[in-house]
């Protein structure tokens, strides 16, 4: 396999890892204010407490890998979306410190304040990730010099906001499915209700986004003609999505979570299939787009990085498995809790 | 008002990296001490070591969260503010950052959760293994980030290639990139600085407890360990610094000349302790130093010539005044810390440390000096590289993002400043609370109106010692 294509796929894997793992803790954050009292909120926070930090590392590693494999795309995207990235950074900072600081005092206003900032930051981060995907699908104004030629508000187009909303609903659904595994009793019954609501909202937005995408972004299907096997991704996506209500109905929370994780992975694979070989499509002139070919590092670096990934990723996956195993089961509030 | 995007981007980078750098050295240093404490518990079975390990783990967790939150900013900022730089170095610098993520961050953040939340979920042995892995992860992270930064200081193992009409550096020899001329020297010095940070922090808090008569043998154990560990780091630091300076003289002679305020290339070059660099007259005024010592330290003989700033075009010289002051401030603080920890070690051996109130106060204040020395040392390293962002290859002024207007950077600077001030205040507040509360068995927090932060801040200021004494008598 071509090294550039390999790195396109590996970036997709890192992004999918991030979306599946941080997706559920962002989702818990989005739902956080729905908890009725302090104890319920602490259950929510402690359900993700030991895990969110490691989940965020997937994003950091995605950023590093993009920098290493496709430096031009990293430079263009990060400088072009300057203010959007700053907002994202502030959201991620607030999420981290809200969780860390909230439990340190019992004052009502203190906990309230951190609750609101935690939830709002989770919402904003999820929204911005979706907006970024939407803008990537449409293409953005990239000039002949590979630099972004628009402003902050050019990014907030209706389609991009639609994908943003889709992502918020997807993470809320994923978070609710996660909480269903971690909670019990009355709280779990309520979480189950939210799960169905989130699923309804997500499904509506999903169908709508699909229609708009097919109408507005004809390029999205380009690769499907040459590589008909890509339709298998569509099939996986639909099967995974339909298995969510099935497993909820059959009371199999683990299977529901696996299904929503698979649905997220398939959505990201579809996003990659629609984009390839572009990394950032220029809406001004297709020849100015940043592609895996014109934006990549040298073949040597891509090879070194592949060796680094091959050495490192087995460890990463095994630690992740160990940590999730250690923290399996329902949340119990104890003396080490938030 | 005309805003300069280069100046603003530099200001923002300085602000965000200096804020970030408050946390990683403490994580690295405290991590190493936690390994020793928990290891001592396993070795001796003494429960007090476990109590201490648990206490420092809680502090470590708060510090680590701040490090993660401020660290993500750094990872993104190369792209947001320094896009032209990113295009130039991505082939080399990017790999180091990605390797840091894969080898270090996953290890650190994953096992940190076992450390903090896992005391009653995993076996003691597994917990100790996790502590070791977190400390190792923190160390790996230092390795990769210093490899990346050192490549900017002393580029090696690259070729310049034209790509999309722009020159960029591509990797020619990966191991030459990793073991570039400065990376190992700088790694040793930085990690020792981080160990010193951990030691001074633990010593400061423990000395505060001993001085207040709290936590008895727990505080004394913790203090003894940190004094021994700190003394080793404090003595090793000048030795590593000296060997690093020889490397700087060889590969970045302009930087060394600026550090030493050496305007003219000269034999018998002096090593100065004080002086006022005067750019206009191109000389170091009111210099107090030893003639020939710099020549001797660099070349092994006093008659050898040391390259001065006059060997470089004015455009290629780093800002001498800033470099001279930063470098000397670091050296003076480092020597003062070596003296303090050396003396404390001697008193510890003689069994007099716990009664020596003045020395205990010095140790409480040492945390501030160590943090400053760490920050200032990095500033010296980075300012000394100017006007280059990649030494000899790319100038800082040519490295900024072309797509980012100055007012956007101004907006982000204002926001970062507000948020970081707020976070720093809350961080100090929570740290202070945890320290007042102390290791788990104690619940005497409310009896101590003057917290550790206040004590450290007062004792670190020049007039602090006497003020604190007056306060205590009152």
In short:
The complex is a heterodimer of chains A (338) and B (474). Chain A is 75% helix and 1% strand.
Provide structural commentary:
- The complex is a heterodimer of chains A (338) and B (474).
- Chain A is mainly α.
- Chain A is 75% helix and 1% strand.
- Chain A has a two-stranded antiparallel sheet.
- The longest helix of chain A has 32 residues, at 185-216.
- The N and C termini of chain A lie far apart (47 Å).
- Chain B is 70% helix and 8% strand.
- The radius of gyration of chain B is 23 Å and the shape is globular.
- In chain B, helix 2 (24-44) runs antiparallel to helix 5 (124-153) and helix 14 packs across helix 15 (464-473).
Secondary structure elements and their pairing?
The complex is a heterodimer of chains A (338) and B (474).
Chain A: H1 3-31, H2 38-48, H3 52-69, H4 71-80, H5 82-102, H6 108-138, H7 158-182, H8 185-216, H9 222-226, H10 231-249, H11 253-275, E1 278-280, E2 290-291, H12 299-326
Antiparallel strand pairs in A: 1-2
Chain B: H1 5-20, H2 24-44, H3 47-81, H4 83-117, H5 124-153, E1 158-163, E2 166-171, H6 174-178, H7 183-212, H8 216-251, H9 253-260, E3 266-267, E4 271-278, E5 283-290, H10 293-299, E6 305-306, H11 320-349, H12 357-383, E7 388-390, E8 394-395, H13 406-437, H14 452-460, H15 464-473
Antiparallel strand pairs in B: 1-2, 3-6, 4-5, 7-8
Helix pairs in contact in B: 1-3, 1-13, 2-3, 2-5, 2-7, 3-4, 3-8, 3-13, 4-5, 5-7, 7-8, 7-12, 8-9, 8-11, 9-11, 11-12, 12-14, 14-15
